[in-house]
Protein backbone atom coordinates (compact mmCIF):
# COMPACT_ATOMS: atom_id res chain seq x y z
CA UNK A 1 0.00 0.00 0.00
CA UNK A 2 1.48 3.36 -0.98
CA UNK A 3 1.96 6.29 1.33
CA UNK A 4 -0.62 8.34 -0.56
CA UNK A 5 -3.28 5.67 -0.12
CA UNK A 6 -2.49 5.40 3.63
CA UNK A 7 -2.88 9.17 3.94
CA UNK A 8 -6.16 9.01 2.07
CA UNK A 9 -7.47 6.28 4.39
CA UNK A 10 -6.43 8.22 7.50
CA UNK A 11 -7.94 11.44 6.16
CA UNK A 12 -11.23 9.67 5.48
CA UNK A 13 -11.17 8.22 9.00
CA UNK A 14 -10.63 11.66 10.53
CA UNK A 15 -13.50 13.07 8.50
CA UNK A 16 -15.80 10.21 9.63
CA UNK A 17 -14.85 10.77 13.27
CA UNK A 18 -15.44 14.50 12.93
CA UNK A 19 -18.81 13.84 11.37
CA UNK A 20 -19.70 11.41 14.17
CA UNK A 21 -18.70 13.93 16.83
CA UNK A 22 -20.69 16.67 15.13
CA UNK A 23 -23.76 14.41 15.09
CA UNK A 24 -23.48 14.13 18.89
CA UNK A 25 -23.55 17.91 19.24
CA UNK A 26 -19.83 18.59 19.47
CA UNK A 27 -19.05 21.75 17.52
CA UNK A 28 -15.87 22.67 15.78
CA UNK A 29 -14.45 25.63 17.65
CA UNK A 30 -12.12 26.77 14.97
CA UNK A 31 -12.31 26.14 11.25
CA UNK A 32 -8.60 26.91 11.00
CA UNK A 33 -7.82 23.76 12.98
CA UNK A 34 -9.57 21.63 10.40
CA UNK A 35 -7.78 23.38 7.55
CA UNK A 36 -4.44 22.91 9.28
CA UNK A 37 -5.04 19.23 9.97
CA UNK A 38 -6.08 18.58 6.39
CA UNK A 39 -3.03 20.42 5.08
CA UNK A 40 -0.54 18.44 7.15
CA UNK A 41 0.75 15.08 6.06
CA UNK A 42 0.66 12.13 8.42
CA UNK A 43 3.93 10.24 8.23
CA UNK A 44 4.65 6.81 9.70
CA UNK A 45 7.00 6.67 12.65
CA UNK A 46 10.57 5.63 11.96
CA UNK A 47 13.10 3.94 14.20
CA UNK A 48 14.64 7.36 14.86
CA UNK A 49 11.36 8.49 16.43
CA UNK A 50 11.58 5.71 19.00
CA UNK A 51 15.15 6.37 20.14
CA UNK A 52 15.48 8.08 23.52
CA UNK A 53 16.68 11.64 23.23
CA UNK A 54 20.05 12.50 24.64
CA UNK A 55 19.78 14.34 27.93
CA UNK A 56 21.25 17.79 28.00
CA UNK A 57 23.09 18.96 31.08
CA UNK A 58 21.27 21.47 33.27
CA UNK A 59 22.30 25.09 32.95
CA UNK A 60 22.96 25.18 36.70
CA UNK A 61 24.18 22.39 38.89
CA UNK A 62 21.90 21.15 41.64
CA UNK A 63 24.24 22.65 44.22
CA UNK A 64 23.98 26.10 42.62
CA UNK A 65 20.20 25.84 42.38
CA UNK A 66 19.92 25.04 46.08
CA UNK A 67 22.13 27.91 47.22
CA UNK A 68 20.55 30.56 44.97
CA UNK A 69 17.59 32.31 46.51
CA UNK A 70 15.06 34.36 44.52
CA UNK A 71 16.19 37.53 46.31
CA UNK A 72 19.80 37.08 45.14
CA UNK A 73 18.93 36.66 41.48
CA UNK A 74 19.54 39.70 39.29
CA UNK A 75 16.46 41.74 38.47
CA UNK A 76 17.63 42.42 34.91
CA UNK A 77 18.76 39.74 32.48
CA UNK A 78 22.54 39.74 32.23
CA UNK A 79 22.44 39.72 28.44
CA UNK A 80 20.56 43.03 28.26
CA UNK A 81 22.86 45.93 29.15
CA UNK A 82 21.38 48.80 31.12
CA UNK A 83 20.87 51.89 28.98
CA UNK A 84 20.72 55.53 30.03
CA UNK A 85 16.98 55.38 29.33
CA UNK A 86 16.67 52.61 31.95
CA UNK A 87 18.59 54.76 34.43
CA UNK A 88 16.47 57.80 33.63
CA UNK A 89 13.19 55.87 33.92
CA UNK A 90 14.00 54.31 37.29
CA UNK A 91 15.28 57.65 38.63
CA UNK A 92 12.14 59.52 37.58
CA UNK A 93 9.91 56.77 38.95
CA UNK A 94 11.74 56.76 42.28
CA UNK A 95 11.79 60.56 42.53
CA UNK A 96 8.00 60.62 42.16
CA UNK A 97 7.73 58.18 45.05
CA UNK A 98 10.43 59.57 47.37
CA UNK A 99 12.65 62.43 46.22
CA UNK A 100 14.81 62.34 49.37
CA UNK A 101 15.72 58.68 48.83
CA UNK A 102 16.44 59.37 45.16
CA UNK A 103 18.83 62.19 46.09
CA UNK A 104 20.46 59.99 48.73
CA UNK A 105 20.94 57.18 46.20
CA UNK A 106 22.47 59.57 43.67
CA UNK A 107 24.83 60.97 46.31
CA UNK A 108 26.05 57.44 47.07
CA UNK A 109 27.27 57.36 43.47
CA UNK A 110 28.87 60.78 43.81
CA UNK A 111 26.48 62.69 41.58
CA UNK A 112 23.62 65.15 41.98
CA UNK A 113 21.61 63.86 39.01
CA UNK A 114 21.46 60.75 36.87
CA UNK A 115 23.08 62.72 34.03
CA UNK A 116 26.28 62.77 36.08
CA UNK A 117 26.57 58.98 36.21
CA UNK A 118 29.25 57.37 34.08
CA UNK A 119 28.19 54.61 31.72
CA UNK A 120 30.12 52.10 33.84
CA UNK A 121 27.89 53.04 36.82
CA UNK A 122 24.54 52.63 35.08
CA UNK A 123 24.02 48.92 35.77
CA UNK A 124 25.03 49.15 39.44
CA UNK A 125 22.97 52.30 40.02
CA UNK A 126 19.95 50.82 38.24
CA UNK A 127 20.08 47.64 40.34
CA UNK A 128 20.61 49.70 43.49
CA UNK A 129 17.61 51.93 42.81
CA UNK A 130 15.41 48.92 42.05
CA UNK A 131 16.32 47.57 45.50
CA UNK A 132 15.47 50.96 47.02
CA UNK A 133 12.09 50.91 45.27
CA UNK A 134 11.45 47.39 46.53
CA UNK A 135 12.21 48.53 50.09
CA UNK A 136 15.25 46.26 50.43
CA UNK A 137 17.64 49.18 50.94
CA UNK A 138 17.27 52.64 52.45
CA UNK A 139 19.90 54.95 50.87
CA UNK A 140 19.44 57.44 53.71
CA UNK A 141 20.85 54.90 56.17
CA UNK A 142 24.43 53.68 56.42
CA UNK A 143 25.09 50.37 54.71
CA UNK A 144 27.97 48.69 52.90
Distance between the termini: 77 Å
Number of strands: 0
Strand content: under 5%
Shape: rod-shaped
Q: Compute the gyration radius: what is it?
A: 30 Å
Helical fraction equals 40-55%
Number of helices: 7
Mean pLDDT: 75
Specify the structural class.
Answer: mainly alpha
Largest sheet: none
Report the order of strands and helices.
HHHHHHH
Short description:
The chain is mainly α and 144 residues long. The protein contains seven helices and no strands. Among the domains are: 43 residues, no CATH class; 50 residues, no CATH class.
Please supply descriptive tags for the structure shown above:
rod-shaped, mainly alpha, 7 helices
Description:
This protein is mainly alpha-helical. The longest helix is centred in the N-terminal third of the chain and has 21 residues, at 3-23. Helix content is 53%, strand content 0%. Among the domains are: 3-45, no CATH class; 84-133, no CATH class. It contains seven helices and no strands.
Amino acid sequence: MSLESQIGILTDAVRELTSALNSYGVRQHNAEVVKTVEAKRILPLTDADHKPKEELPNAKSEETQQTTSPASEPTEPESAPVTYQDVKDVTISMSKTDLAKTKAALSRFGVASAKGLKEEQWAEYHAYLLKVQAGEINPEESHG
